[in-house]
Amino acid sequence: MPSKVSEAFTLRTYPYREADLIVSFLTRDQGRLRGIARSARRQKNSFGSGLERLSLVQMDYYQKENVELVRLNSCDLVQSQFSLAGDYPSGVALDFIAELSEQLLPPHEPNEKFFRLLASVLESLRRQQGIWLPVTYFSLWAVRLSGFLEEMRIEEKSLALAKDMLAKPVSQFDAAAWSKETAQDLRRALIHCIEIHIERRLLTARVLETL
Fold this sequence. Notes:
Helix 2 packs parallel to helix 4 (132-145) and helix 4 runs parallel beside helix 6 (184-196). The chain is an alpha+beta fold. The model has no long low-confidence stretch (mean pLDDT 90). The chain is globular. Helices cover 37% and strands 22% of the residues. The protein has a 5-stranded mixed beta barrel.
């Protein structure tokens, strides 16, 4: 089987052996995959900064039938999130988005809507207009696209906000009206809904709430 090239977001990396990395990444056409990046921890490698958290890349990989881990050959960086990582609140938001994607997305199931959600939310974060609008928007759509959105027992104001979010793209919301205090019950309800369906509690949820 020949190698494939897919547009992908890097979600997470894990050390493997002496110099390798196991990489979890979300492709537009194949869903979430995991692969081995040989010698990726060495100073000279063929991956560069493409394996940084939530980098958008063109991932070149080889996939064998009935083998869980693909073999990563290289990746070409398309969009880095380096400008966000230097800002602490934005960096925590990136951690939350990456962790949530890793936990909710099943392997080998294409989900282009989730891929487009990531792209639009990251674009919103890069506008430097605060983190709470894109983070809440992402949380709502993540549980909806994963099939876990239950009836939300929250205040009428927050419920109206959630319905509005399900009807509009994130780019059409007014970020100036958002703050840490906006729709806190909505955020708590979404995180609770997510944690019901994953194996462990989200590591970055409490860090987000302290910002």
